Amino acid sequence: MSADPKTAKVRPVAKADAARRELLMGLYRQMVTIRRFEEQAAKAYTQGKIGGFLHLSIGQEAVAVGTMAALRADDDVVASYREHAHAIARGTPLTAVMAELFGKATGCSKGRGGSMHLFDVARHFWGGYGIVGGHLPLAVGLAFAAHYRGEPRIAACFFGEGAASIGEFHEALSLAALWKLPVLFVCENNFYAMGTSIWRSLSIEDVTAKALAYGIERDRFDADDVLVVHDRVAAAVEKIRGGGGPALIEMRTYRFRGHSMADPAKYRTKEEVDAWKVRDAIPGARKRLAEMGAAETDLAALEEACEVAVAEAVRFAAESPEPPPGEVDAHVYA
Q: For 69, 145, 227, 306, which has the most beta carbons within 10 A of its beta carbon?
């Protein structure tokens, strides 16, 4: 083949390559949207527009985005209190999520849940939960319901490594394994349960080692490549859906902010944070897209569209009405 660029033949992009680039472009759009959403949420919190707690997952976007892309629309999803990214990746409108953070009636939980309790029944997103580890048995219950009814759904449950020492974690894995239930346990290991490092809280740093006690499938990898997350989760989901029983996946990731907006994260060094920022999945995905042939103009347009969508969500939340005082008792009892 000629080395002259004027005479060299250009290899046509294979359909598989094009599909792969399209997949990554969609995942990149979601990660950028979530990053901008949480940056604006942090700003609104400092302005007093958001009350209560606010737990950001800036740096962990690839976990939620890659996993959700490997699930089906009718699969059930349960998350912890750090769940903005999961709700958005699941498809809950930005306006509904931001309005919920603002405590407005137009929020996805009608302004009653706030940051830690996002729900979207239509999308099988069964909420964020404020009790560490307390939601794992709920995922097992959802998986049991699907199994009992003969429905081809699975339940995916997100939790932090801090929950791996909670009793409900072991109870959930034990029962799911015993009944071979279709549930995917996703541990987002960001190395700090609140402000306590994993090296001080777990005798064995490999959370998936605990799966051996229950005889369930396990996988463990770094979540700094969203395509790797998607592919590894998709493989696990295929086995689960095929009757292989539950699986535990541990993804090593990193949050660039403190545990919550009230946490200055002084227990970490700047050098440590900077080292992890080099592995940030978002610029990594952008670089990969450029290598796959994505045009700079297309990437810039995508990023601008994400910022516009987030700005609209903030405007919508700010202008939305407060929940009517007369409905304070609504939705308390069935």
A: 306
Confidence of residue 196 (pLDDT cuts 50, 70, 90): confident
Q: Please say whether the beta carbons of 76 and 287 come within 8 A.
A: no
List CB contacts of 196: < 8 A, sequence separation 6 or more. 162
The two structure tokens encoding residue 116: 């830690």
Percent of the chain with pLDDT over 70: 96
Do 210 and 164 touch, CB atoms closer than 8 A? yes
The contacts of residue 237 (CB under 8 Å, 6+ apart) are 70, 71, 154, 184
- Token digits of residue 225: 């490549």
Residue 252 · residue 222 · CB < 8 Å: yes
Two tokens, residue 126? 């069964």
- CB atoms < 10 A from the CB of 296, how many? 10
Reported pTM: 0.92
Side chain identity at 289, as an amino acid letter?
L
Tokens (6 digits) for 55 = 């737990």
- Gap between the Cα atoms of 258 and 38, Å rounded: 13
Please, what is the end-to-end C-alpha distance for the chain in angstroms? 72
